[in-house]
Amino acid sequence: MKVDRFLNHQIDPLFMDEIGREFARRFRDDRVTKVLTAESSGIAPAVMTGLHLGVPVVIARKKKSVTMTDELYTEKVFSFTKKSEYELSVSKKFLSADDRVLIIDDFLANGQAAGALVKITGKSGASLAGIGIVIEKSFQEGGNLLRKQGFRVESLAKIESLAGGVIHFADTKREVYAR
Amino acid sequence: MKVDRFLNHQIDPLFMDEIGREFARRFRDDRVTKVLTAESSGIAPAVMTGLHLGVPVVIARKKKSVTMTDELYTEKVFSFTKKSEYELSVSKKFLSADDRVLIIDDFLANGQAAGALVKITGKSGASLAGIGIVIEKSFQEGGNLLRKQGFRVESLAKIESLAGGVIHFADTKREVYAR
Predict the structure, then answer these.
(1) Can you give the pTM of this predicted structure?
(2) Which terminus of chain B is more solvent-facing, meaning fewer CB atoms within 10 Å of its CB: N or C?
(3) Could you tell me whether strands A168-169 and A72-79 are parallel, antiparallel, or unpaired per DSSP bridges?
(4) For testing contact with chain A, the best of B8, B11, B12, B57 (most A CBs within 10 A)
(5) pLDDT attached to residue A69
(6) Across the interface, which of A17, A58, A66 has its CB nearest the CB of B10?
(7) How many domains does chain A contain in total?
(8) CB spacing of A56 vs B10 below 8 angstroms
(9) What subcellular compartments does it reside in (chains A, B) (predicted)?
(10) What is the pLDDT of residues A59-85, one digit of tens each?
């Protein structure tokens, strides 16, 4: 499934603005203080969500850069797409026990990246308002694993199957979340 | 100089929105059809600029991913911050001779990344409206090299010196561009 025309390689900013508006609407009453995402394809939906909620966006980085020498929260992630392991890191100064975090990402499949962001949130002592996903591949295990742990996962589109080259969407209106 | 509190590691989306609005204002009459940036710290200002101009944003990627098999425009970049070379790639389907490109990036120092984006634009046959930079370190050579080539470079903040640990800003209102 290729989404590079509007979601990651090329971005439609007006569509991304609507995505941010919708996430903000769903978590409006949840006292979110920080949006957390992972570079780089989560940045656009996360920044638009932060814009509509009026809160800062923290971007977990894939590599420790030379200029990032603070103490870090770090978690390993295995990427099935890229077939390699990497680390996500967040400076300790940007997440604390006073924060309430909304995790935003473009895709949820195996839940590796979202799971790492959940662990980073836990390590910081912050509470987790939930996880907002643009496209969930619900035929993969990530979403269910996160919901079974009691996390609120809000996916704007859920794809049940790619069988025969056809995208089958779930009826998201009838979805029931484990909270 | 650390800007990770508002510009890259943690982002202030409302400030980023203002940055996008200002770039859009400066290039409003320039018939821009695409904003072009490099992952990952250019994404937020580029998406906000695209939002205010109402045009798509193309993100040059640092690695060829497994799912990106199209023909690519590719340029090498040497990062002085990370002390390593990497490649920036853009799928050929997102830039063509019909496009007029506005390059947006967070920083301009040696001009390595911006220079690669200029070359990618040239390879595609698109015309270049200009280059919008959030923070230019004008004591480094990148900005002058680009202006000497005749490109319009618009920097929202220009830092002339970091001597003695003090940030000295240029008076950007008195700037004269080579067009």
Answers:
(1) 0.89
(2) C
(3) unpaired
(4) B11
(5) 59
(6) A58
(7) 1
(8) yes
(9) Cytoplasm
(10) 999 875 555 556 999 999 988 777 888
